[in-house]
Amino acid sequence: MFKILEKQMLNPVIAKIVIEAPRIAKAAQPGQFLIIRDGENGERIPLTISDSDPVKGTVTVVIQLIGASSHRMVEEFNAGDSYADVVGPLGNPSDFVNMSPEELARQHYVFIAGGLGTAPVYPQAKWLHDRGVAVDVIIGARMKDLLIYTEELGSACDNLYLCTDDGSVGFKGVGTAKLEQLVNEEGKKYTTCVAIGPMIMMKFAALTCGKLGIPVVVSMNSLMVDGTGMCGACRVSVGGETKFSCVDGPEFDGALIDWDEAMRRSRQYKPEETAAMEKK
Hints:
Structural class: alpha/beta
Shape: globular
Strand content: 25-35%
Number of helices: 10
Oligomer: single chain
Helix content: 25-40%
Distance between the termini: 25 Å
């Protein structure tokens, strides 16, 4: 059993959960994920690690209220309760974890974070920023009230840019438009862009980075179901080769993703999710 130490609603549909898991906390690296099962009959839910503290022995995840399982994990569990299983860390860490100090010193990263994808950007930006790497972060949401992790990321980067579709705070427009402004109008030069968020956002981030000549990395964690490579649900075509998000990723070169296929795959369980919510 894994004790929940803290539950906080970041907005009406996204919760932050801090879990006691000392062994996982010591081993976790940026880009990796966990599989959580709330009870004996619970669904296995892959969730990207949004923070870890090896001293306190905790890992943090964020959960968006989408399907019946995510609603149950948030609504029926509070601080002091326990989840049945927390397995991890799983998946490959971000590529920069294996760079030498000399390589890192030459980097200037920009992150484009959207919605739920904002939380897993935090451990990556923090890891780089703590090692003196130049980091800019762009966070996008429909409106001000839906932005999350702004304070955390504000302390984990050199420049933080907020974007809202309705202009309620920061730049009025999407994160990719802000990136174009930074590069084309302000002369920013980036060695790598990391985009994490909704599938459509990552697709357009990849297209925008292609125009700007910036290598782009995306996280395909939203495709994962089983998290072990056995179910095949997270298949993604990368440069014409079939990869599995859970065991080969979850991060890939965004310029090589077959985005039309990936977006179709992301919708494959919508009927089952809808049916489960109707029974809830």
